[in-house]
Amino acid sequence: MKKILLSVAILIVVLVVILFYRANSVFKNNQYQVTESLTPITLDESAVIDRFSQALQIPTISYDDTSQLDHAAFQAFHQHLAQSFPLVHAKTRLTKFNYYSMVYHLKGQNPQLKPALFMGHMDVVPVDEQTKDQWLQPPFSGKVVDGVIWGRGAIDDKVSVLALMESMEWFLTQDIVPQRDIYFAFGHDEEVGGEGAKAIAKYFVEQNIQFEFILDEGGVITDGIIPGTTQPIALVGVAEKGFVNFRLTVEGEGGHSSQPPAHTAAGILASAIVNVENNPFDARLEFFDLMFDNIAYSMPLSKRLPLANLWMFEPLVLSTLLTSPSSAASTRTTTAVTMLQGSTKSNVLPTIATAVVNLRILPGDTVSSIQAHLERVIDDPRVTLSIELASEASAVSPTDNIGFKLIESSIRRLNDNVLVTPYLVLGATDSRHFQHLSNNIYRFMMVSLDPTTLKQFHGLNEQITVPDYLNAIQFYYTMLAQTASGNQAPK
Ligand SMILES: [Zn+2]
Question: Looking at the structure, do residues 250 and 231 belong to the same domain, yes or no?
């Protein structure tokens, strides 16, 4: 008996030693080490802010009904860019697609180097009429109050468009001949499907262009959003989820509700929906693993210990992540049943009942693997499935490409308290149309958000602080200058 107790005690001690040893050794600080912080460019702040404010005042709204497109607004926006950035317009070639989407091309002198592409979008989502009066400054006022710039588009995504243009204008004053070709692509309808971006992508394919890397909107610098961290975390999207709508249809006999069958078409459909919800897709930790590898070293021991010992704690870590819809969405393909339809009258049996399941596809799953899953869990030949809208998940871009390295080093050289990590973008960006144009697509915008300001995405009181906007220009300028230099490693 004593021997058994002793063996158990020894085992426990060994286990504890292993857990702690791993907690302190698995995660290394592999953040880019700053040897030379950035020398910021000297901006004429009031002119820069004024140009941004004016851009926010132009209501380049995207409507689902594209016939509502405000041509005058987009023309005014183009004119504003032309007036504000004369050097860019003199020294680059501008091509327009679907009238209002734009590509600026700055030619480099070394044809051996693949070009780089920076993307953004000019359009914004509409302002909800019902909540319009809850804005503390009118949404298209572009007001600058107490160091904050207000307006729809301040973070999504006129900040990228204007900051990129400012950085290019500055770059061109230097009279440096770029080694590498640089392209800017600005869509005008990203919020409603990105037909402009599609046309641009088609053009690049026709031109046989392959990009060294592409940078589009996506992740941001988060403050107080990632649990277990106290430092700001820059999330750089290396992949994005796909989406697909499946319509479930059940046909019925119809007739009067006074003599119903045991199950109406609506009832059969309801049972199928319950089966879909009760059989979620498998959850996987791969995108969290990427994050843990980069930032877990900075977490307190209590967080690091389970993460460093997934061989023992994976079920616990996964179940914790699954309790919150936002972290759950990063671990698996999600299902959301959205639109339901049965008969149109309370005493009429439905001859047809339909539901739409909106799924967001985790990279690794595909539309066809999802269809197979749905058919298996519904397991009822009376329910038919049809695909209404589909876009596969993106590939996962590597982090050893010069594009990622430049993004990482530029963020850290501006503020080395910020930790950088790759992550999975849950929504869709225009860059999904560019999959075949580069293996290295990154989704990041130089904006800082905390739990409160995060809600301003497509929401109320969209705004950006003046220092944040100036910081975005510094970021893009460094990206541009280093990309143009053709160096294969960050300076
Ligand atoms: Zn956007």
Answer: no
